[in-house]
Amino acid sequence: MTNNTSRPTDPEAYEELSDTDAGQQPVDRSGQEGHIRTVLDFAVAESAKVFAWLVFVGAVISVYEVVMRYAFNNPTSWVHETTVFLISVIFALGGPIALARDKHIRVRLIYDWVGPKARRWLDVVNSIITFVFLSGMTYAAWIMFYKSTHSPLGVIQLERSGTSWNPPFPAFTKTIILISVAVMLVQTILHLVKAFRGKGYDDDHGGGKGKGGGPGPASTTLGKEG
Questions:
Q1: In this predicted structure, what is the pLDDT of residue 128?
Q2: Is 4 within a domain?
Q3: What is the pLDDT of residues 135-187, one digit of tens each?
Q4: What is the dihedral of CA 113, 222, 193, 89, to 10 degrees?
Q5: Mind spelling out the 3-state secondary structure of the chain?
Q6: Nearest-5° angle of CA 15, CA 128, CA 16?
Q7: I need a labelling partner for 136 at 20 to 30 A (CA). Which of 73, 107, 176, 206 fits?
Q8: Residue 157 belongs to a domain
Q9: Residue 111 domain boundaries
């Protein structure tokens, strides 16, 4: 038997589908692993398909370095630093991508045993704590970014690695870190607004208490921002 349900490419259609079960009755998916909550989350999650290729590029140039070094005794001066930079970018972007896909890990013992309304307020508290943390992270990342892109006199001057090749990768990396934590901050604000509005928390189909006070279907999920 084939499944004719295709994944929509439009963010609004995606979000609408995520709150329904195969086009049938609305399902409360708030708090479930992999739930796309906002249009920004959709865009960030989709961007992962592009940035994932950086891992492949890093692997290819690493193989090239090995061949050049051991087969031709002609090592490069740029492969190692480029590979480290690419992996640093992937590592930094993993934060907003995991947050967009609702894949950050937290203990769900209480979350899965309460009803939709309680889960809504747990999400509010969680988002507020995350907002405070990311606000500090964004401020620290901004200072780090500014120092890596400006001289003490305030003139634009990119920080470089100091090697024989001497690329400005340190400045680029700190720029990516700033962008990543800033995007996560905006994501958290949107999640907080959505939790306050209560959208997706009115139905008890997808989680919360099951019969007899036990956890419902959502209890099998493992990840959420934390």
A1: 97
A2: no
A3: 999 999 999 999 999 999 999 999 999 999 999 999 999 999 999 999 999 99
A4: 160
A5: CCCCCCCCCCHHHHHHHHCECCCCCECCCCCCCCCCCCHHHHHHHHHHHHHCHHHHHHHHHHHHHHHHHHCCCCCCCCHHHHHHHHHHHHHHHHHHHHHHCCCCECCCCCHHHCCHHHHHHHHHHHHHHHHHHHHHHHHHHHHHHHHHHECCCCCECCCCCCCCCCCCHHHHHHHHHHHHHHHHHHHHHHHHHHHHHCCCCCCCCCCCECHHHCECHHHHCCECCC
A6: 5
A7: 107
A8: yes
A9: 11-220
Give tens-digit pLDDT for 27-77. Answer: 344 444 457 889 999 999 999 999 999 999 999 999 999 999 999 999 999
**The pLDDT of residue 129:** 96
Residue 225 counted as domain residue: no
- Residue 61 pLDDT: 98
CA dihedral 100, 103, 105, 109 (to 10 degrees): 100
The number of folded domains in the chain is 1
Residue 61 lies in a domain: yes
**Alpha-carbon distance 208 to 5, whole Å?**
27
Average pLDDT, the chain: 81
**CA 185, CA 191: separation in Å to the nearest integer?**
10
